[in-house]
Specification:
The protein is α+β, with helices and mostly antiparallel strands. Helix content is 19%, strand content 15%. The chain contains two helices and two strands; from the N terminus they run E-E-H-H. The protein has a two-stranded antiparallel ribbon with strand order 1-2. The N and C termini lie far apart (47 Å). 9% of the residues are buried. It binds zinc ion.
């Protein structure tokens, strides 16, 4: 067991809980979309950067998700 240092729970890149921010569905972190929001210069005075994690269903509902080439090639093959 390595327990040197205090790299404990909670790096900012890791979702703290395993829930979609929209529907509160419990999802494994590996199956969450990371939605990173960066306002352009005209909005940055009012809005900060933010990161949300959402499930694939909500990502599709918001039209945020896009299929990988790997996935579409598989579909083309039948
Ligand atoms: Zn969701």
């Amino acid at each position: 067991m390595k327990s040197i240092g205090s790299s404990g729970a909670g790096s900012p890149e890791t979702p703290r809980n395993e829930e979609c921010y929209r529907c509160d569905r419990a999802v494994a972190p590996a199956f969450l979309f990371k939605v990173s929001v960066e306002p352009s210069s005209g909005l940055s005075k009012k809005y900060g950067n933010s990161v949300r994690y959402c499930c694939e269903h909500c990502a599709a509902a918001m039209n945020l998700s896009d299929f990988s080439h790997q996935w579409t090639q598989q579909l083309d093959r039948g």
